[in-house]
């Protein structure tokens, strides 16, 4: 049986990440970076596409599992007829090459164990040549090489293009496996003591987690989400990927399968807010600096997403040899949406940089000039249609959220100039733009009969992104139009505690067949909107219900299937965890995003 998406846990080293199932199998890992080819791709195919399972012989799913304290070190326990054993999985923060370490420890009795390692480079398509060398099993194929060793050595043999091991652990005994990737042209990587690495990894995470200044309700959920966001950070550049996976479906068996191993500008404001509010100013500064590097250049060339180091070319391709998660095809790498026009990103970038300045992050001399350049371009283009934040693959429209974020761009520029009169800029010019956008949105994007903002000008469809209207300051929370929009979105897009992004019934605005699950970030937005409009008890109850959707180790995917009651989409999803942190802090009175209302 294919594991459910929520059957997986995450380990990582701040440059890439792996998914480990309840059955002890690592089914997804891209090396050496998040956006590299996967050497374990069973998640999107089957075992022949690469995996690494360590488990008691004859056992299936574990008895229980969890992270060790506030860390990304995973402990999986099996209770068997002959004894109890645990496997500790982690990836230490690397000096040079990435390591996956798996320490098997006997707890009681005696347990016969099995390890099966199937390395398949380039997303499960390339079978490496494996040989013995200096106590290692060495797998090589083209540019990739991986070295496997165990301490102490155990019986190991090759079978059906796999590396198999068999051993027994008694109470108190330990067997450690270390898998190290490196470029095939380089010398053997340095040996790392797995037990020393475990202690240093736990110490690193304990120190990092202790810096979290949030002490309100739901702290366990908040710190786990912050650890997840940290795990999705590409340490060399400060970029944060939307998810470590590609093509986990938004509909089982459907075609809505996208590559999320990149950095989206749409997440920037909410990510910065979550990091700043929790006291992680170093991470917030790194993300801000990544943002400045990525968007530098001609404002007309601003993209909605970039690679881990700010790369602009992310060509989309389909991997025909992978059958897809539960036969959901195509499996895609790269993302063609990178070429879309989404006018909201200008507002998100400018809002992010203002938030960074208010948080006390050191101001970059060129940052304000960059914002003025972005504003100048947006001033001449905000009246044009775009693909919107949901990256529709249908025709361009005048999306209300895109216009609201154009208002945000002008509004934040005005506020910045009012607070910093020494900065260059024409506040009157941006006030005029702000007022013009506000007027048009209220005239063309609002349905007075239904008392709600719509998805786009003249449309009947609704959009959960309009829940952000009060949060951005576009209108005050007690405005009847805001309250009407919240009620309409909940009635038409809601299902229990969950909210869909937009309707996919009939001919969908996104130009794609099929449907999708409820969008978890939008569900957190609903809780925020309820709180802002004075329905705090409803917001708290909704938030508690959303917390129940996390898996057993506190992780959330992008979406949730309300019918089959399971998670959908790429996993774990940064946007979902950002939403969780933001709502928890807002309910505790520790949010920083709310702004004064203009208009």
- Cα-atom radius of gyration: 25 Å
The number of helical segments is: 14
The quaternary structure here is single chain
Question: How many strand units?
Answer: 28
**What ranges have pLDDT less than 50 throughout 5 or more consecutive residues?**
592-599
Counting helices, strands and paired strands, the structural category is: alpha+beta
How big a fraction of the residues is strand?
A: 15-25%
Helix-residue proportion: 25-40%
Q: Biggest sheet: strands, sense, closure?
A: 15 strands, antiparallel
Round the mean pLDDT to the nearest integer and report it.
94
Q: What distance separates the N and C termini?
A: 55 Å
Kindly describe this structure.
- This protein has 599 residues and is α+β, with helices and mostly antiparallel strands.
- Helices cover 31% and strands 22% of the residues.
- The protein has 14 helices and 28 strands.
- The strands form seven sheets. It has a 15-stranded antiparallel β-sheet that branches. The protein has a three-stranded antiparallel β-sheet with strand order 26-27-28.
- Strand 16 (233-234) and strand 17 form a beta hairpin.
- Helix 4 (268-278) packs parallel to helix 6, helix 5 (281-295) runs antiparallel to helix 6 (344-358) and helix 12 packs parallel to helix 14.
- The longest helix has 20 residues, at 400-419.
- The termini are far apart.
Describe the SSE topology.
Blueprint lengths: L7 E5 L4 E5 L3 E6 L7 E3 L10 E6 L7 E4 L6 E6 L3 E8 L8 E20 L2 H4 L4 E5 L2 E6 L2 E8 L3 E5 L2 E9 L3 E10 L10 H17 L8 H13 L1 E2 L4 E2 L22 E2 L3 H11 L2 H15 L9 E2 L10 E2 L13 E2 L10 H15 L8 H15 L18 H20 L7 H18 L1 E2 L4 E2 L15 H4 L7 H14 E2 L2 E2 L18 E2 H13 L3 H12 L11 E3 L4 E3 L5 H14 L12
Antiparallel strand pairs: 1-2, 2-3, 3-4, 3-5, 5-9, 6-7, 7-8, 8-9, 9-14, 9-15, 10-11, 11-12, 12-15, 13-14, 16-17, 18-19, 20-21, 22-23, 24-25, 26-27, 27-28
Helix pairs in contact: 3-14, 4-5, 4-6, 4-14, 5-6, 6-7, 6-8, 7-8, 8-9, 12-13, 12-14, 13-14
């Amino acid at each position: 049986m294919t594991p459910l998406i929520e059957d997986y846990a995450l380990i990582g080293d701040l440059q890439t990440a792996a998914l480990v199932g309840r059955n002890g199998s690592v089914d997804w890992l891209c090396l050496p970076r998040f956006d590299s080819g996967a050497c374990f791709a069973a998640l999107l195919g089957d075992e022949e596409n690469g995996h690494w399972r360590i488990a008691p012989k004859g056992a299936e799913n574990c008895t229980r599992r969890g992270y060790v304290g506030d860390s990304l070190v995973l402990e999986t326990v099996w209770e068997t007829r002959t004894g109890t054993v645990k496997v500790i999985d982690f990836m230490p923060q690397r000096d040079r090459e990435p390591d996956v370490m798996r320490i098997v420890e006997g707890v009681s009795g005696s347990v016969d164990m099995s390890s099966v390692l199937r390395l398949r480079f380039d997303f499960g398509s390339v079978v490496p040549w494996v040989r013995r060398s200096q106590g290692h099993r060495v797998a090589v194929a083209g540019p990739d090489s991986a070295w496997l060793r165990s301490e102490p050595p155990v019986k190991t043999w090759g079978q059906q293009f796999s590396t198999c091991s068999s051993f027994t652990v008694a109470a108190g005994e330990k067997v450690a496996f270390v898998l190290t990737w490196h470029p095939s042209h380089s010398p053997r990587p340095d040996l790392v003591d797995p037990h020393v690495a475990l202690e240093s990894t736990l110490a690193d995470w304990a120190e990092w987690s202790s810096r979290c200044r949030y002490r309100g309700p739901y702290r366990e959920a908040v710190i786990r989400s912050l650890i997840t966001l940290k795990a999705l950070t590409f340490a060399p550049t400060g970029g944060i990927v939307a998810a470590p996976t590609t093509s986990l479906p938004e509909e089982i068996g459907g075609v809505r399968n996208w590559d999320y191993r990149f950095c989206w500008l749409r997440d920037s404001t909410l990510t910065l807010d979550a990091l700043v509010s929790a006291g992680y100013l170093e991470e917030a500064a790194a993300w801000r600096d990544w943002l400045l590097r990525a968007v530098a250049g001609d404002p007309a060339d601003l993209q909605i997403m970039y690679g881990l180091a700010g790369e602009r070319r992310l060509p989309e391709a389909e991997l025909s040899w992978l059958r897809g998660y539960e036969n959901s095809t195509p499996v895609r790498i790269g993302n063609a949406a990178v070429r879309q026009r989404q006018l909201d990103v200008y507002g998100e970038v400018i809002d992010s940089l203002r938030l960074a300045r208010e948080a006390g992050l050191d101001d970059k001399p060129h940052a304000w000039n960059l914002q003025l350049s972005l504003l100048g371009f947006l001033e001449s283009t905000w009246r044009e249609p775009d693909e919107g934040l949901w990256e529709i693959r249908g025709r361009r429209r005048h999306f209300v959220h895109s216009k609201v974020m154009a208002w945000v761009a002008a509004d934040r520029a005005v506020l910045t100039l009012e607070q910093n009169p020494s900065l260059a800029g024409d506040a009157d010019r941006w006030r005029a733009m702000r007022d013009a956008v506000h007027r048009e949105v209220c005239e063309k994007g609002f349905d007075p009969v239904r008392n709600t903002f719509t998805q786009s000008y003249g449309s009947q469809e609704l959009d959960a992104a309009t829940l952000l209207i009060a949060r951005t300051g576009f209108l005050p929370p007690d405005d009847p139009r805001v309250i009407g929009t919240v009620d309409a979105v909940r009635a038409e897009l809601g299902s229990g505690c969950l909210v869909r992004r937009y309707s996919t019934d009939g001919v969908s605005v996104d130009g794609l067949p099929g449907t999708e699950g409820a969008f978890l970030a939008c569900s957190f937005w609903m809780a925020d909107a309820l709180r802002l409009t004075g329905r705090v008890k409803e917001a708290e109850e909704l938030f508690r219900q959303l917390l129940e959707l996390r898996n057993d180790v506190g992780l959330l995917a992008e979406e949730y299937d309300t019918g089959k009651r399971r998670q959908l989409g790429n996993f774990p999803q940064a946007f979902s965890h950002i939403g969780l942190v933001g709502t928890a802090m807002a309910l505790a009175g520790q949010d920083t995003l709310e702004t004064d209302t203009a208009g």
